[in-house]
Amino acid sequence: MTERLVIVGASLAGLRAAQAARRSGFTRPVTLVGAEPYLPYDRPPLSKAYLDDEVPKKPFFRTDEQLRAELDLDLRLNTLATSLDPSRRVVALSDGDELEYSAALVATGATARTLPGAEKLVGVHTLRTLDDAVAIRAALDAGARTVVVGAGFIGSEVASGARKRGLLTTVLEALPVPLVRSVGEEMGHACAELHRAYGTDLRCGVKVTGLESAHGRVTGVTLDDGSIVPADLVVVGIGVSPSTEWLGDSGVQLHERDRGIVCDEMLSSGLPGVYAAGDVMHFPNPLFDGELMRLEHWTNAAEQGALAVKNALNPAEAKPSAVVPYFWSDWYGHRIQFVGVPKADEIRVVSAELGEDKFLALYRRGDRIIGCISIDRPAQIMKYRRLIMQSQPWADALELAGVS
Amino acid sequence: MLRIVVDHGKCAGLGMCEAEASDLFEVQNDGSLLVLNETPGEDRREAVIAAVESCPTEALSFVQE
Description:
Chain A is of the alpha/beta class. Chain A is built from eleven helices and 26 strands. In chain B, strands 1-4 form a two-stranded antiparallel sheet. In chain B, strands 2-3 form a two-stranded antiparallel ribbon.
């Protein structure tokens, strides 16, 4: 068998995997397959600084030269993996090539979901790729009336970028309170307040039924009450689907709900030598009672990309992926940070109890702290993260917060 | 000797380094990063490397002096 590591997916998890392979002393060929025509790039800035800065910075992690020279990578960009055959240990590519692997990492990430008919219209975008960000930025620069469908984190960041330019901005949300499923009701209200304070028209409990257009260009969004919200730019932020279509015949286990790969805590897919990392996969997190989770977070992709490859190359010393989920989001110059998991027995809005403006809430499961969310408290969030990582008692978290 | 170097222009105060090594790094209330010990001992080398690698904005590095 050819000693070769094949990494499918050339974003953060894939890049970190390649780096980890080399750092651990793997000297055999490493092939990195990427669907987009670009070198690996950083996605969080695409909805933040890339939209806001006067001159946006290029988000590439490394130059082509660095990747080839430092990591000795066989880079296959603008190339899709089309299938994985576990019996022959082969990944087939869209250019007809077949790559034999001794170890393979699936890091294909996820694809943004959109509205029916959106593909055919100019002015309707999701925000996942560099191309998306370039198009959205151009529309914002042109002064587009902006409508964001879905009051999630990325959509809210786009709304923030639009308001920074003083544009008419509307956010449409199906739920009565934004983000209620991911962070709870109180925090959802705090997020809603941020939108309103900065002049974004946030409309909750509304259902989008379609898109209006003229001459192939979007002109508005139709709601279920028959009204139309005029728009030159529509950004759809209604979640993502794991990019696993190409694995349909591989025999790998896919989750019934979203078809993400189901892995064990060592990030093994169950197929010999095939591991997965990042947004594409579910894993049982030993830090949270083995709860099966699929995370769409930068830090998780980075950590798992490196860990999955180390486990794949040295299964005898494999370590479980015990990550504390962490994400951040920047809205209107405010930073929202979340660590841990939101499924809690109790959520205490500590900032309200203390009469403080800057939001802080703690999440309890059983007798331990499992989550913390804050707005504009960068010095505190990592202190709670440590408590969560060490499975510390709830009382310790309350003490740190200064409440009883 | 290890010396920790912070590019404060790149640092976004996300705190991953503090999560890796709270004896070396602390994010301040204004979001800036304070390095608590710029020249940690050899026994903290692994922690420094972990912090450097965990930084989402690649603001951290170290030099050997």
